[in-house]
């Protein structure tokens, strides 16, 4: 009895569980699975319920009435399980296909480029979302329309589409077209086509990809503008500008380069210097360019010779820098060269003139030295024999005084020997002495030009102390007061700079005003790496018309009153010229003068 | 001791084994089915019931008969649970 009870309970549970499952299935019919699969599964549940019902009847009532039905349904249950599994698998495959199709559709619609398909009449049969968004139309507005209706140049597009469909234009070529958006804006696009074929291999339509190339077009226009600007700049530069590849072939060249080589910028492309210049010159240019390519280091402002188409020799200052690719590797050279021919010619002229000048100077100094030195010998003779002649005259006069009888003759001879001859001899000797003095001055000046200059730091305080000490007598004689401030050191030759300030100091003493106590002040200031030493006096001053002349040779302010050869300030200027120095005079007649000497600081 | 094996039970087991082979052959694809483990488990339990019903003709008739009916009940419960999981809950896809 218990045995049967449990079996019946199990059968009831089987029945009820299947019934519950069936209820869930029916209630959630729309939620999952394909209808076909659900029908099959419903059958399985019903068969299971029927089978459990048969078992219940058999075991509850102990009857074999439903045995036959039990056998049939019992066999149907595993069979139905096979159908269920099969249906599930079919549903899974279908689901996978649907998902794949969905993914394809998504890929088609959300592709970054526009897609559309045309039939053999050129009408749009399919269009993706990207293209619709790009053009602003709805699918309904585009589907079925001839594709050329959307292009700006409709006729040209129609002919192109028809030619393609007729097989006259091979597929795979890209075309640029202007397409009109729904809002009227025009859009530059790039179209690429592929043929669609039917099973027989005939052309069944076209599948086109469309890319919006507005940004690319703008970039191209901008690039073209920049290129044009650059080209204009390069071509209008007076300098030669060129770009060469690693084999030194011209890649870019401006008009100046082309003009130099007697061709056009286009005519230079792909050619080398060997096509235009003599072999030796071209080899030199080639070597320079290859050095830049090899080392990656620029050659800056290298002066190079060149020859223009007329065969004229020219000079250029050329800078060659390496041109690097995006990887940093040298892919060529950029060269800029400037015509130096005029400058070179001027420099050559200047050098030639300087050489001539130096030779003339040497010649002049030599003449000066020889003249001043060699003229002294006859001068000494004139002086010596002049004196001798004077003595001889006196002797002749004494002798004749007693010999000549007549008073008239005696008076004439007396006048000649006592007045005329001594006076003439006096003039001759004075002139000879003066000439000797001048020749000594000239000799000194010429020797100064030949003397070596030893530049060294100079203690100017010590130098002025020695100068004033050496002129102590003259200072006392002139009754002058001397005020020397602290002086900075400078660079120069000790002996020659001493000569400079001695001459200036001597002049200051010499030209003091006798009507007032003399005062000489020496001070200095430093500016821009130079020292300016000032020697200031309260003397008679220099008239403006004389201020420029006082540095000339043999120029003297008061030749009758003051001694000297007029060489002091000429020597000053000459010495300072050899020391990178300068001398300047500021003066006011009746008030005094100031001589400023500029020398490099120590 | 008498052996009583019914033909219909042999047919059920044979068909069940055939279905088992089919399931095992497509096991990886069936995994994409929602709560597939429960449904497959229901089938395995059912197959056990069919096996047991054949064996009860050979030995332990009463115990194996219990197990047979219990297997049917458990299998039905698994199927009900699967139906609840698939159709009772809000799901859009399987």
Q: What secondary-structure arrangement, pairings included, does this model have?
A:
The complex is a heterodimer of chains A (602) and B (94).
Chain A: H1 2-27, H2 35-61, H3 67-109, E1 114-118, E2 124-127, H4 129-135, H5 139-142, H6 154-165, E3 174-180, E4 186-197, E5 203-212, H7 214-236, E6 240-245, E7 250-253, H8 255-261, H9 265-268, H10 279-295, E8 299-307, E9 313-324, E10 330-339, H11 341-374, H12 376-403, H13 407-450, E11 456-458, H14 460-470, H15 472-478, E12 481-484, E13 490-492, H16 494-510, E14 519-527, E15 530-537, H17 544-547, H18 568-577, E16 582-588, E17 592-600
Chain B: H1 7-25, H2 27-30, H3 36-55, H4 61-88
Brief description of this entry?
The complex is a heterodimer of chains A (602) and B (94). Chain A is an alpha+beta fold.
What descriptors fit this protein?
heterodimer; A: 602 residues; alpha+beta; 54% helix; rod-shaped; B: 94 residues; mainly alpha; 4 helices
Question: Would you mind describing this structure in some detail?
Answer:
- The complex is a heterodimer of chains A (602) and B (94).
- Helices cover 54% and strands 20% of the residues of chain A.
- Chain A is an alpha+beta fold.
- The longest helix of chain A is centred in the C-terminal third of the chain and has 44 residues, at 407-450.
- Chain A starts with a helix and ends with a strand.
- With 94 residues, chain B is mostly helical.
- Chain B has a domain at 31-88.
- Chain B has helices spanning 7-25, 27-30, 36-55, 61-88.
- Chain B is flat and about 45 Å long.
- The chains are: A alpha+beta (602), B mainly alpha (94).
- Chains A and B meet through helix 1, helix 2 and helix 3 of A and helix 1, helix 3 and helix 4 of B.
């Amino acid at each position: 009895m218990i045995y049967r009870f449990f079996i019946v309970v199990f059968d009831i549970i089987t029945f009820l569980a299947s019934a519950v499952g069936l209820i869930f299935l029916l209630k959630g019919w729309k939620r999952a699975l394909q209808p076909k699969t659900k029908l099959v599964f419903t059958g399985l549940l019903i068969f299971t319920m029927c089978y459990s019902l048969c078992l219940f009847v058999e075991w509850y009532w102990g009857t074999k009435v439903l045995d036959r039905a039990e056998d049939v349904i019992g066999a149907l249950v595993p069979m139905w399980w096979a159908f269920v599994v099969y249906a599930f698998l079919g549903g899974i495959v279908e689901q996978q296909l649907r998902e794949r199709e969905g993914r394809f559709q998504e890929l088609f619609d959300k592709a970054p480029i526009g897609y559309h398909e045309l039939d053999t009449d050129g009408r749009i049969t399919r269009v993706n979302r990207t293209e619709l968004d790009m053009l602003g139309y709805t699918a309904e507005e585009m589907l079925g329309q001839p594709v050329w209706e959307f292009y700006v140049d409709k006729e040209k597009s129609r002919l192109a589409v028809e030619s393609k469909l007729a097989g006259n234009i091979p597929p795979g070529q890209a075309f640029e077209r202007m397409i009109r958006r729904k809002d009227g804006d025009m859009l530059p696009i790039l179209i690429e086509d592929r043929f669609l074929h039917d099973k027989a291999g005939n052309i069944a339509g076209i599948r086109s990809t469309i890319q919006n190339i507005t940004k690319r077009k703008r970039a191209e226009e901008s690039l073209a503008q920049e290129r044009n600007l650059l080209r204009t700049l390069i071509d209008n530069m007076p300098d030669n500008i060129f770009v060469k590849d690693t084999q030194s072939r011209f890649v870019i060249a401006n008009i100046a380069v082309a003009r130099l080589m007697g061709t056009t910028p286009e005519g230079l492309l792909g050619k080398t210097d060997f096509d235009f210049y003599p072999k030796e010159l071209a080899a030199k240019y080639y070597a320079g360019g290859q050095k830049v390519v090899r080392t990656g280091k620029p050659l800056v402002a290298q002066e190079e010779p060149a020859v223009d188409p007329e065969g004229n020799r020219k000079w250029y200052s050329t800078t060659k820098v390496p041109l690097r690719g995006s990887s940093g590797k040298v892919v060529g050279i950029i060269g800029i060269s400037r015509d130096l021919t005029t400058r070179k010619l001027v420099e050559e002229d200047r050098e030639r003139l300087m050489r001539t000048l130096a030779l003339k100077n040497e010649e002049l100094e030599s003449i000066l030295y020889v003249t001043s030195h060699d003229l002294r010998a006859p001068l000494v003779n004139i002086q010596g024999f002049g004196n001798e002649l004077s003595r001889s005259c006196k002797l002749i006069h004494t002798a004749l005084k007693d010999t000549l009888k007549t008073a008239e003759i005696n008076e004439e001879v007396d006048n000649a020997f006592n007045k005329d001859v001594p006076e003439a001899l006096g003039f001759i000797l004075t002139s000879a002495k003066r000439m000797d003095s001048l020749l000594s001055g000239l000799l000194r000046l010429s020797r100064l030009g030949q003397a070596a200059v030893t530049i060294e730091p100079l203690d100017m305080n010590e130098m002025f102390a020695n100068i004033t000490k050496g002129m102590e007598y003259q200072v006392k004689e002139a009754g002058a007061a001397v005020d020397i401030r602290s002086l900075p050191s400078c660079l120069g030759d000790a002996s020659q700079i001493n000569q400079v300030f001695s001459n200036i100091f001597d002049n200051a003493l010499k030209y003091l005003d006798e009507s007032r106590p003399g005062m000489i002040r020496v001070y200095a200031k430093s500016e821009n790496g130079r020292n300016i030493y000032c020697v200031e006096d309260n003397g008679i001053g220099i008239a403006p018309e004389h201020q420029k002349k006082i540095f000339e040779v043999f120029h003297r302010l008061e030749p009758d009153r003051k001694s000297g050869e007029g060489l002091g300030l000429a020597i000053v200027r000459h010495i300072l010229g050899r020391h990178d120095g300068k001398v300047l005079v500021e003066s006011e007649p009746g008030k005094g003068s100031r001589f400023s000497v500029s020398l490099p600081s120590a | 001791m008498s052996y009583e094996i019914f033909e219909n039970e042999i047919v059920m087991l044979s068909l069940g084994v055939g279905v088992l082979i089919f399931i095992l052959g497509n096991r990886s694809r069936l995994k994409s089915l929602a709560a597939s483990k429960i449904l497959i488990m229901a089938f395995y339990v059912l197959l056990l019931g069919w096996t047991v019903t054949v064996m009860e003709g050979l030995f332990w008739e009463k115990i194996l008969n219990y197990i047979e009916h219990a297997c049917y009940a458990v299998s039905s419960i698994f199927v009900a649970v699967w139906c609840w999981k698939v159709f009772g809950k809000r799901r859009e896809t399987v």
